[in-house]
Amino acid sequence: MSPEFVLYLVINTVVVLAIAPLFISLIKKVKAWTQGRRGPPLFQTYFMLAKLVKKEVIYSPHSSWIMRVTPIVNIAAILVAALFVPLVFVPEPVGGIGNIILLLYLLALAKFFMALAGLDAGSSFGGMGSSREMSISAIIEPTTIIVFAALVFVFKTLNIFEMFTLSAASGTLSTPTLILIGISLFIILIVETSRIPVDNPETHLELTMIHEGMILEQSGSNLALMELSAAVKLTLLMALLINLIIPFGLSTTLSAAGLLLALVLFLVKGTVLAGVIGLFESSMAKMRFFRLPSLFAMAFFFSTLIIIIEVFS
Amino acid sequence: MIKELLLLGLALLLAGVAIPLVTAGADRKLARTVSLACTVAASALLAILSLAALLSGEVISWTAYQPIAGFSLTLVIDRLAAFFILIIAAVSGCVAIYATGYVEHLHGGSRRNLLCACANLFILSMVLVIASGTTLAFFLFWELMAASSFFLVMYEYDDPETKKAGIFYFVMTQLSTLFVILGIIILYGQTGTFAFTHVLAPSSPFLTAAFLCLFLGFSIKAGIIPFHKWLPYAHPASPSPVSALMSGVMLKIAIYGLIRFLLYVFTPDLWWGVLILAAGTASAVLGIIYALKEHDLKAMLAYSSIENVGIIFVGIGLSVIFTSYSLPALATLSLLGALFHSLNHALFKSLLFLTAGSVVHATHTRDIEHMGGLVHRMPYTSVLFFIGAVAIAALPPLNGFASEVLIFISFFSSVAVANPLFKVLIFICLALFALTSALSAACFVKAFGSVFLALPRSKESADAREVPLPMLAGPALLAGACVVIGLLALQLFTLAGYSVPIPDMLMIGVLLLAMIALTYGVLYITASRNVRISGTWGCGMPSQQPLTEYSGHGFSEPIDIIFSTIYRTKIRNERTFFDAAGCIFQEGNAEIRLLKVFEEYLYLPVARVSCRAAKSVSRIHNGCLDTYLLYVFVTVLVIIAWLGWFA
Fold first, then answer.
1. ipTM of this complex prediction, to 2 decimal places
2. Where are the strands (E) in chain A, listed by range?
3. Which of B18, B91, B385, B641 has the most C-beta neighbours closer than 10 Å?
């Protein structure tokens, strides 16, 4: 492992941890504006995390070691997954870091623990959340894998780092296929980060909640970790989308000026994407749970279309 | 050296058969322990010899018995055989350690001696199937394996459910044997030899028929859908170590047979690969969908075996397709994926069956709806089961992921296949494969959650106790192997001389640990350390009841509804009302019925036809000696006439 790569590990983790809560606040702000409210301050998510860390942790008497290890394993898996998606600087990949399948399965590892923690306390809310989350993640999986296969098809590599390098080298806006892939990736982002129309991140009503139901029993610093990991997951999926479709400014060599420029550009692009997500969520109603499979089927056929276009062109 | 080790290992296994049989009359613990100790020692020897053969690449051949030219019992160990012997050895050793504790808790008195003897015979026959150098020996030991496993399934023969399962298993396994012998005979007709040699003749209908027969035979044994029904019957009925052996190892013997014949005998056509890929994909998806619906813990694991065998078939099918497109590197890659998944499945499935056996032993039920809360009562078993669940859900950094990623990479590399239609077909299979692996994660969240977490849902579950040490040691070895093989996957492939494009899991493991340490460190410094234990939030209910928690049925309900067309759930709902507007309910009845598709549309019709045929044949058996003498006389006359005519 070269010193450059170690530096990359540090930079990427620090950047993703620093800006992830900001994007959560931004989306909330945009949604508030569309509803005619002023919305929380931009740094509200940071304040909330700081407050939660200082609070005591409450465990149910029926909960086990699963409940205790889940927050830490969850954030660790998501943070390792975040290393697979360079935000501002793309080094040479080392030892399979950046493998697109491994990225998917690291996210699945986090989800596995979270779903078990939902069942651990014996609350019916947690169980409901886990059951729905695992069902949704199962039926979106074919779409996700086909989109990833299309990416592998277009870039002829399994590694996200190499995809970004190729994408950055080929200029700003890329082929029509890539735009189609971008739309599919956006749907995956909405599903994976539990947003409207799949789930509602705002409520704790049992009728709508999936992700919030699973973490209902979490408290104090554990809840802070769960919230932070959800934010990091959102940021890494946004970065995947941004750096594939509009890689402009992404730094491939290590220099302070380049990094700073890339960071500023990423913030701008991320802000725009967060705005789009906020508007998208505001323009829709939450779907009934059992109508979701037809939405996913649509996304699936859509992404299969990309493959078919690519194969026959 | 390898040959001597093999003979010593086989002799030890024979001793393991003989010792409990000699003392069968007396119900002695010592005889069983010695017999199982023989199994452990033999497994250790076999593991050493197979590792030596794997790493050196040396081929050992030894003719044990040759009555006439052309027929011989020859044992051959090459790298492929050594790999599968390693699987047998690893699983049987751990299962035997577990069984030393388990067997003593079984009912049945001196019948337990027979169980140990049969288990040793079963392991011996599996090793001999793998080591067979000729197709004839392969068939003989295959039949020995089928017979000994039947006796193992029938251990609790006085239970009506076991009787049904045993008969079902017997019929299916004999059907498998029938197809295997048919395939071998057709092959002999084409080549004139029983040796495993490449058929040089061009593709002919006979060769295709031979392949199809062997494919059917191996599919039945491996539990490929639609020949899978014996697994969910036989596994719950048999004692847990036997389920572990059958699911972990015996299914792999069928896989070995398929690979052996595909690589060393046939030159496969493209459509053979497509057939294997399609069968594998169908088994994988349907297997896990049925597993999600199952609430018998061991039947659920059996369905999950069907899924995993499907995954292995997918790897083999891809390999055949790549071979016929002359892409040898990719063919090797997907075959390595299939082989590696065979090893990994053997390890984590036997781990799961053994720990499930401990759970069943502690709670006296197989229904997961009557379990729950065992994580506090059986802490070690719960950790072991958890490792198995993470491994089988193909989550990094354990071994299930390492092999599935190989198959994923082969799928993604199919870009190299020239034919665009095949590309689309392969991508559809890829989508279904991804669905399978996500559903298996859901399935094992449900399994672990319902069995171990939350509150106990029955008195037996509340009174459960941790199992004794041997029943933890065996699974612990398997769990350790799952972790080590998962982390060192890349290094192991390099050691075996293959360069595969899988991520370095050791590094990922280190990174995960580093992130865990970092988070823990930051929290240790900054976070509040106050911890309070307080009741689960229940919307103001005064006390938490097990009845209100999410059950296994509830957990899989969304998937039930989404895949209701596959389950063929029939919901009937009839209501009558007092008034015309349908407001005041009078009476009604409702029914939810699961259609057993394969049983009702495939197995039962076939069974009915064969019953009718048997009835018409039985008419000529009138029980009178004179009639039988007449039959013999007529037969002799016909043969003489036939010989005179043609010879």
1. 0.95
2. 57-59
3. B91
* Distance between start and end Cα atoms, chain B: 52
B438 with A55: Cβ contact below 8 A: no
The DSSP result for B409-434, as a single string, is HHHHHGGG-S-HHHHHHHHHHHHHHH
Chain B contact for A112, CB < 8 A? yes
- Per DSSP, B247 falls in state I
Per-residue pLDDT tens digits for B524-563:
999 888 999 988 887 777 778 888 888 888 899 899 888 8
Region of poorest pLDDT, from A49-63, A201-215, B344-358, B451-465: A201-215
In this structure, are residues A218 and A130 in contact, taking their beta carbons and an 8 Å threshold?
A: no
Residue listed under structure tokens 């709902």 = B573
Residue of A nearest to B453 (CA): A120
- Vertex A214 angle, CA A210 and A116, to 5°: 125
Condensed to tens digits (0 to 9), the pLDDT of residues B416-456 reads 777 888 888 888 899 999 999 999 999 999 999 999 998 99
User: CB within 8 A of A201, min separation 6: which ones?
Assistant: A193, A194, A195, A211, A212
Report yes or no: A189 and A278 within 8 Å, Cβ to Cβ: no
Helix (H, G, I), strand (E, B) or coil at A201: coil
Question: Angle, nearest 10°, between helix axes A65-83 and B505-526?
Answer: 120
CB contact under 8 A, A307 and B424: yes
| Residue in B with minimal Cα distance to A73 | B516
DSSP letters for A123-188: -HHHHHHHHHHHHHHHHHHHHHHHHHHHHHHHHS-SBHHHHHHHHHHT-SS--HHHHHHHHHHHHH
3-state secondary structure of B313: helix
Alpha carbons B257 and B586: distance in angstroms, whole number: 62
Of B561, B291, B246, which Cα lies nearest the Cα of B437?
A: B291
Six token digits for residue B86: 């390693």
B471 contacts B360 by C-beta, under 8 angstroms = no
Residue found under tokens 């009078």: B586
Q: Cβ separation of B442 and A134 shorter than 8 Å?
A: yes
DSSP-derived letter for residue B546 is: G
Contact B302, B283 (CB under 8 A): no
**Interchain pair A62, B519: CB under 8 A:** no
Backbone angles phi, psi at B295, to 5 degrees: -115, 5
Question: Residue B147: is it exposed, middle or buried by C-beta count within 10 angstroms (0-12/13-18/19+)?
Answer: middle
**pTM, full prediction:** 0.94
Mark yes or no for CB contact A145/B439 under 8 Å.
Answer: no
Q: Does B510 touch chain A (CB under 8 A)?
A: no
User: What is the pLDDT at residue B169?
Assistant: 94
Residue B556 at interface with chain A, using a CB cutoff of 8 Å: yes
Measure the CA–CA gap between A249 and B382, rounded to whole angstroms: 50
**What is the maximum alpha-carbon separation in chain B?**
100
Inter-chain contact B455–A122, Cβ cutoff 8 Å? yes
- Contact assignment for B523 to A53 by CB distance below 8 Å: yes
What is the number of other CB atoms lying within 10 angstroms of the CB of residue B106? 17
Q: A interface mutation test: which of B488, B519, B561 has the most A CBs within 10 A?
A: B519
Helices (H) and strands (E) in chain B, counts: 26, 5
CB half-sphere exposure, B482, CA atoms < 13 A: 32
CA distance B56 to B5: 15
Q: Which residues of A touch B441 (CB under 8 A)?
A: 108, 111-112, 134, 137-138
> Is the distance from CB of B443 to CB of A142 less than 8 angstroms?
no
* A61 contact B CB<8A: yes
> CA–CA separation, B584 vs B189, rounded Å?
76
